[in-house]
């Protein structure tokens, strides 16, 4: 068996020589050595059920995806200035899933790069640079992406919204600013306020960027009617609408292939990341002919790695696997089953204040009887689940949301195991607050 470097040595080397703001998951960090479907396997051979990784979309190390990458890597990898079938085939696979208006693709290497490019397209198309985004939204790690990510600039180490960013309140109908039946309209009116602010400054609207389910905000589903009304207002003001599908795209939400399709809207730009390469760095921007034409203003767009034959072979294999294995249908079926089971658990344990999400992009929130967030219990639950071999992640502005976004090969049996252990740990003394 291979000689492993002890974890304490890996940790001390990291602390000294790797980025100082990188974080490690869990109080006692784990080292994974292998992935297999919904499982991650650590150096002792212990298997963990992965309910976190929406990057390993069709399952960790899916054989069809690995094979596609290996075969193309053995043959050729170059930039996209040469003709190649793979980039066209991948574009075609994506176009088949999108509304007819969204039929031009640019390939990049990460979700951040996709959103970065989307904002450049907005500037080229509208001539404006004012962006409207959600509170606690996250759109990536580059300069521009941080500038539109309230999750970062309103958090530790941040210094608030830049001049050209306009934030509307997290459209959370459970504990947010508006909670009633009219929440969709009320949050859309907040978007209008951002538009009015931009106009008062004698500038125009560039774009609205929103995730169809706000992930870092705590798996927040957009209230009924919100997106439709917000898009309408932004468009009336001459702005574009971007759907950030980096987390939720490619079949995960079950009912539809893309998150925006849960609502009655068609964006001008869609950004696609994480799941597209099943772990390999490839991302994409889909846009209309009009946006693509405006962006092609004479300056070449060159991206060394974006759209290379290896990445495209991998992403095409991912999309074909989703189709072949009917994984969108699986996300719907298993997701609805799991959501119902979680709702039943919420009946039994009132500490679960809200269960939400679509398909295999779910979340539940822990609160006390006065709706106060319970961050300690949330962290305890995630750490105890890990001890039982189940990986979960936590998020939300108050760190009290458990997120469930596993590879979409997640089965009913996996869901049952998850529920069994949640039930066991929810009974523990630390979880008793009522
Ligand atoms: N958009 C959203 C919604 C994301 O969650 C992320 C990453 N968590 C990004 C963009 C940035 O993607 P990447 O980390 O691949 O640059």
Would you mind describing this structure in some detail?
The protein is an alpha/beta fold and 434 residues long. 38% of the residues lie in helices and 17% in strands. The chain contains 13 helices and 17 strands. It has helices spanning 7-17, 63-75, 85-97, 111-126, 143-147, 150-153, 183-200, 226-236, 289-295, 309-324, 327-348, 375-387, 412-426, and strands at residues 32-36, 39-42, 47-50, 104-108, 130-134, 165-168, 205-210, 213-214, 220-221, 240-244, 269-272, 283-287, 352-358, 361-366, 390-391, 393-395, 401-404. The strands form four sheets. The chain has a seven-stranded mixed β-sheet, sandwiched between helices. Strand 8 and strand 9 form a beta hairpin. Helix 11 packs parallel to helix 13 (412-426). The chain is globular and about 60 Å long. The chain starts with 6 loop residues before the first helix and ends in an 8-residue tail after the last helix. 4'-deoxy-4'-aminopyridoxal-5'-phosphate binds at residues 110-112, 115, 138-141, 211, 215, 244, 246-247, 273. This is Aminotransferase class III-fold pyridoxal phosphate-dependent enzyme. Belongs to the class-III pyridoxal-phosphate-dependent aminotransferase family.
